[in-house]
Amino acid sequence: MTDGKDNKNDEGTYVLRLFITGASPNSVRAVDNLKAFCEKYLKDKYRLEIVDVHQQPAIAQKEQIIALPLLIKKSPAPERRLIGDLSDTEKLMDCFRITV
């Protein structure tokens, strides 16, 4: 699943990968919280891939996933990882280096 304008990694575009476990309550909350955050703070400046580790275990293994849900901010550098339902807006803002 991809959100955002396009599939190019343009400068200023956040490339995000969210690993979830099906429709578990924490996974659903993580998806909802991340989408709401991105629409508020990163509107039209992000590309989001949602990976269900049950359906795509090879990708999860390659990324060495140890806990779920897990958000990986691939770019811009540095890569950052956040574990949990992504309800802590302050941690997300720190991850994306957003100041209000």
From TrEMBL:
<dbReference type="GO" id="GO:0048511">
    <property type="term" value="P:rhythmic process"/>
</dbReference>
<dbReference type="InterPro" id="IPR036249">
    <property type="entry name" value="Thioredoxin-like_sf"/>
</dbReference>
<dbReference type="Pfam" id="PF07689">
    <property type="entry name" value="KaiB"/>
</dbReference>
<dbReference type="InterPro" id="IPR011649">
    <property type="entry name" value="KaiB_domain"/>
</dbReference>
<dbReference type="InterPro" id="IPR039022">
    <property type="entry name" value="KaiB-like"/>
</dbReference>
<protein>
    <submittedName>
        <fullName>Circadian clock protein KaiB</fullName>
    </submittedName>
</protein>
<feature type="domain" description="KaiB">
    <location>
        <begin position="17"/>
        <end position="98"/>
    </location>
</feature>
